[in-house]
């Protein structure tokens, strides 16, 4: 299943400074959910410091997740069933100072 995953607001620094990733998720017997996707991202895209992106099987507080420009909280968060051609964006709202 082909989807697009994007990182911004500084989150892209954890992914070799690449903002957009065209991803072809492998076929599996069950539906892909964002929970599954986060594990896949950790194993396949994340380059460094996973603790800055993930916490307790979810994204860290301060990372906004959008699915097709809609807040994932309106779609079921980790349980959202990913559809072909979905665009999933992770935006860090945390800034150093």
From TrEMBL:
<protein>
    <recommendedName>
        <fullName>Ubiquitin-related modifier 1 homolog</fullName>
    </recommendedName>
</protein>
<keyword id="KW-0963">Cytoplasm</keyword>
<comment type="similarity">
    <text>Belongs to the URM1 family.</text>
</comment>
<dbReference type="GO" id="GO:0032447">
    <property type="term" value="P:protein urmylation"/>
</dbReference>
<dbReference type="GO" id="GO:0005829">
    <property type="term" value="C:cytosol"/>
</dbReference>
<dbReference type="InterPro" id="IPR015221">
    <property type="entry name" value="Urm1"/>
</dbReference>
<dbReference type="InterPro" id="IPR012675">
    <property type="entry name" value="Beta-grasp_dom_sf"/>
</dbReference>
<dbReference type="InterPro" id="IPR016155">
    <property type="entry name" value="Mopterin_synth/thiamin_S_b"/>
</dbReference>
<comment type="function">
    <text>Acts as a sulfur carrier required for 2-thiolation of mcm(5)S(2)U at tRNA wobble positions of cytosolic tRNA(Lys), tRNA(Glu) and tRNA(Gln). Serves as sulfur donor in tRNA 2-thiolation reaction by being thiocarboxylated (-COSH) at its C-terminus by the MOCS3/UBA4 homolog. The sulfur is then transferred to tRNA to form 2-thiolation of mcm(5)S(2)U. Also acts as a ubiquitin-like protein (UBL) that is covalently conjugated via an isopeptide bond to lysine residues of target proteins.</text>
</comment>
<dbReference type="Pfam" id="PF09138">
    <property type="entry name" value="Urm1"/>
</dbReference>
<keyword id="KW-1017">Isopeptide bond</keyword>
<dbReference type="GO" id="GO:0034227">
    <property type="term" value="P:tRNA thio-modification"/>
</dbReference>
<keyword id="KW-0819">tRNA processing</keyword>
<feature type="cross-link" description="Glycyl lysine isopeptide (Gly-Lys) (interchain with K-? in acceptor proteins)">
    <location>
        <position position="97"/>
    </location>
</feature>
<keyword id="KW-0833">Ubl conjugation pathway</keyword>
<comment type="pathway">
    <text>tRNA modification; 5-methoxycarbonylmethyl-2-thiouridine-tRNA biosynthesis.</text>
</comment>
<dbReference type="GO" id="GO:0002098">
    <property type="term" value="P:tRNA wobble uridine modification"/>
</dbReference>
<feature type="modified residue" description="1-thioglycine">
    <location>
        <position position="97"/>
    </location>
</feature>
């Amino acid at each position: 299943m082909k989807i697009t995953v994007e990182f911004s607001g500084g989150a892209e620094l954890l992914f070799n400074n690449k903002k957009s990733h065209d991803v072809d998720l492998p076929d599996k017997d069950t539906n892909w959910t964002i929970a599954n996707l986060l594990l896949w991202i950790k194993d396949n895209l994340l380059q460094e410091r996973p603790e800055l992106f993930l916490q307790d099987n979810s994204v860290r507080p301060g990372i906004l997740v959008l699915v097709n420009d809609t807040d994932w909280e309106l779609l079921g968060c980790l349980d959202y069933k990913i559809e072909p051609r979905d665009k999933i964006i992770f935006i860090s709202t945390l800034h150093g100072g």
